[in-house]
Amino acid sequence: MTNLTRRQFGKTLAGTAAAAALATSFSRIALAQVPSAKSLQFPTGFLWGCATASYQIEGAANEDGREPSIWDTFSHTPGRTFQGETGDVADDSYHLYKEDVKLLKNLGVTGYRFSVSWSRIFPKGTGKLNEKGLSYYDRVVDELLKNNIAPYITLFHWDLPEALPGGWQSRATSHAFADYAAYVSRRFSDRVSHFFTTNEFVCFTDLGYKSGKFAPGLKLPDAQVNQIRHHAILGHGLAVQAIRATAKSGTQIGLAENATVYVPVIETREHIEAARRATREGNAAFLTAVLEGKYTDAYLERAGANAPKVEAGDMKAIGSPLDFVGLNVYTPEYVRASASPVGYSVERRQASYPRMASDWIYIGPEVIYWAIRNVSDIWKPRALYITENGCSADDVVTADGRIEDTDRVMYLRNHLTHLHRAASEGYPIKGYFLWSLLDNYEWADGYSKRFGVHYVDFKTQKRTPKLSAEWYREVISQNAVE
Ligand code: FCB
After folding, report:
1. Residues 433, 388: contact at Cβ < 8 Å?
2. How does pLDDT run across 400-409, given as a tens digit for each residue?
């Protein structure tokens, strides 16, 4: 009985003829049957993890045969990143990975999501393999397994090999990605059961090639951007096919996507329906195309003459069935039903809307519930993971060396409460990866934004658990949020 969720409990009770008669003694029964009045218990076997990405933590940019990615080039170009900071050293996890696995172990996580640097494995993107790069990931995987932590590998977290001509502008990159993905998954699928193809399409397409805020820093017109987006989702689809063809059978394949999350402005039927419509249309270029194997009519209409050129077989590959969907969830968009042709409108945020240290992290913890619910209701994935969730905070080290990040704990506690709601309503949410294990290179923001539950002194590489690490360890050990 202790595993009965509040909702199931309510249903069971309502379903019995004796329910009415029992009403007077309800509180006594509830106390006996609901786990603990103060903790929100997660299902047995729920996976708790942390996430990182290669360019953000590894450093060792020029070691053991690794060649530049577009992020090396971008971060070394004056004016592109905060104070010109680069990922040359980052957390030096290339050398300190054993220490980082110890941090994971101390938290008690059962999974670790990390990414592989493509240009460590194939320095030129295709062709000649670099065994030394591969053996680094061998060491990481083995160290994790030794500590009973399941490795979850992301194959592409933005650090595209610089040597690939045109990057994602070229269709050849989609094929190169599939080849690389097949190679890595074949090599590791004896020890790794879950692979994510890509991380956050919009960040390496639109931010890279439209606004130019991320590598490679281009500002291209819409027609080209739409084609780049198409190559990205095609790369994902071809990779799914290639992994299925080569990796050990039973290998679980999905992606990690930061779909825009539309939260109904009020939880009523019409606004819930509006959020659902917005989820499909607002993500038409990416997640919708991947999960439906087609672009929506409205997307193609909006794009008009700038619509991507699609070749025979592309949409089938893009729509390749997935074993799970990973969602990176940070911030909500509030949506209401409207009489507009699309049937919804997105609310403007007031200036006073609260945020965390990064200006893009607006706080709305119900976002995690709606991310899961919208995606599940529309596309019915077999399994879902929260592949990233967390926040930056202006951490301060106290005189006695502590980091009391109560604001991060507030952010996490509230999100996990809403995650619990999704789990207890029966959505197929299997696990949660906190971003991030440790402070790291936050892309164009350099080292100015700290997301870790471990504080990193970037001069000495000393790692110190923050209050949030202590808090997360407690959540994991109880499998519950208080
Ligand atoms: C996500 C990225 C991740 C990290 C967090 C804060 O968009 O996937 O690498 O930068 O944001």
Report:
1. yes
2. 999 999 999 9
